Amino acid sequence: MKNIIIIIFTSLILVLVGCSKGEAKQANIALTTMQCGMCESTIEKGMAKVNGITKFDVDMSAKSGHVTYNASIIDLASIEKAVSALGYQANKTLADPVAYEALPGCCKVGGM
Ligand SMILES: [Cu+2]
Questions:
Q1: Which of 72, 73, 88, 90 allows an S-S link to 80, with CB 3.0 to 4.6 Å?
Q2: Does any domain span residue 92?
Q3: Residue 63, C-beta contacts closer than 8 angstroms, at least 6 positions apart
Q4: Is the residue at 112 inside a domain?
Q5: Which pLDDT tens digit goes with each residue over 68-104?
Q6: What does pTM read for this prediction?
């Protein structure tokens, strides 16, 4: 009887740990085309609206983003697309040309 309780308990814990691990994922995204603090806030504000993204921190000096997301709602490719839709390159996903054109001059590559 004691053994059965231990087995049930152990499997319950394993299931709980397994679930939380499967959902919350983290990744670094290279944001090579960002130029200034305005880019940072554009990306952070834009990403905050995307369903499935829990957190998106932009590191200006490193030109990269650290994202925490729910893998059962969104995948990395969709996150890259969402960044692209804001006018920025994400990893190897190129910026959406229309969104890029709409960016302020200071936010364009080599812009001023
Ligand atoms: Cu900018």
A1: 90
A2: yes
A3: 30, 31, 32, 34
A4: no
A5: 999 999 999 999 999 999 999 999 999 999 999 999 9
A6: 0.79
Residue 3 lies in a domain: no
**How far apart are the CA of 36 and the centre of ligand 1, in A?**
4
Q: What is the mean pLDDT of the chain?
A: 89
| CA of residue 43 to ligand 1 center, whole Å | 10
Laid out side by side, the sheet with 53-59 consists of 24-30, 64-70, 53-59
Q: Which domain holds residue 89?
A: 24-107
Query: Is there a domain that residue 2 lies in?
Result: no
Domain count, the chain: 1
Calculate how far, in angstroms, residue 107's C-alpha sits from the geometric centre of ligand 1: 3
Nearest partner of 39 among 56, 54, 60, 55, judged by Cα: 60
- Taking only the tens place, the pLDDT of each residue in 49-66 is 999 999 999 999 999 999
